[in-house]
Amino acid sequence: MRHEKAARLLELARMMAASAEGLTLDEMAERLGVGRRTAERMRDAVREAFPQMEEVDDPPTRRFRIPAGLDGIFQAPGADEFAALRAAAEQFKAAGARARAGALLSLEQKVLSAIRAGARRKLAPDLEALLEAETMAMHAGPRPFEDEAVLGAVREAIVSLRRLRLRYEGGSSPGRVREITPFGLLFGRSNYLVGGEGDSPEPRTWRLDRIADIEVSETPGARPPDFSLQAFVNRSFGIYQDEVEEVVLRIFPHGAQEAMGWRFHPTQSIEPQADGAVIVRFTAGGMRELAWHLFTWGDKVEIIAPQRLRSVMRQELAVAARAHGMPIDERD
Fold it and tell me: Tell me: the pLDDT tens digits for 14-29?
């Protein structure tokens, strides 16, 4: 029990050292999953162990930080942390995301080079054993496009608050040169730049593999202050943005247990039914991508609403059936 408490205090100290602006008591409590009074006691204990901790006025509250960081003895990573880092890098590499894989492998080398030789020798056997015993199951799908020049230009424009000038080979006018204010990047089955064209604040998506001749322009460009990339993503089941509707799914009893542990959408709620089924509700757009996903549930799911999703599902099934010589009625 004492060891566990010491580990939690060290975790809090690391949080304070990792935050440039510091943490409030409420933020400490939220991150550690404790009450405010417990967070106060833990803060006081950290202050005793690390007297360099500072208090910063941030009306109407205060923030606490350890500005000079922690000594290396408190920061030595373990074999399981290195294994997780390597696994993430290998997963990116296998998926074709070589730029991000390279960044993680470079980070691994930098961290290893900062560890004393004796500690590295102790880590090596455990790390080797974990790497041999763990791997990632890869799913079929497209290999995402990641060109370091494209990603570098987008990130430079985001940091410098400037627009991008590029030739876009997709959309209704392939090959047209466009000026885009970058709002962010979405990584998935395909990778997308999210941004507004010209002076428009309306976010649109641009596939990275259809971008050519990209450069950072001198024209200032910053995303709207009220724009949230996460909120933009949450509007849709996938990448495609269309009308947001309330989705209601009935998962039959033989799929209910799986559904209870499944995350369809961040806004979802799950309601167990008397017959063993569950009702899943969430609000989203992207009905076509949702239909594609629901097909993988087979006979475990019934679409209750919206009607548009039912229609899209029937249309997609009809297209697949025709391709295999089995035409079906698309009428709902």
Answer: 888 888 889 999 999 9
d(CA 6, CA 77): 16
Tens-place pLDDT, residues 184-215:
888 877 788 999 999 999 898 898 989 999 99
DSSP string, 110-127: HHHHTS-HHHHHHHHHHH
In sequence order, the 6+-apart residues with CB closer than 8 A to the CB of 282 are 246, 247, 264, 265, 266, 267, 268, 269
Q: Which residues are CB-neighbours of 8 under 8 A, at least 6 positions away?
A: 32, 42
Could you give the CA distance from residue 170 to residue 248 in angstroms, rounded to a whole number? 33
Q: For residues 273 and 279, give the distance between their C-alpha atoms in angstroms, rounded to a whole number.
A: 7
Q: What amino acid occupies position 22? A: G
pTM of the model: 0.56
Bridge partners of residue 270, in order along the sequence: 280
CA distances from 322 to 53, 88, 158, 293 (A): 68, 40, 46, 20
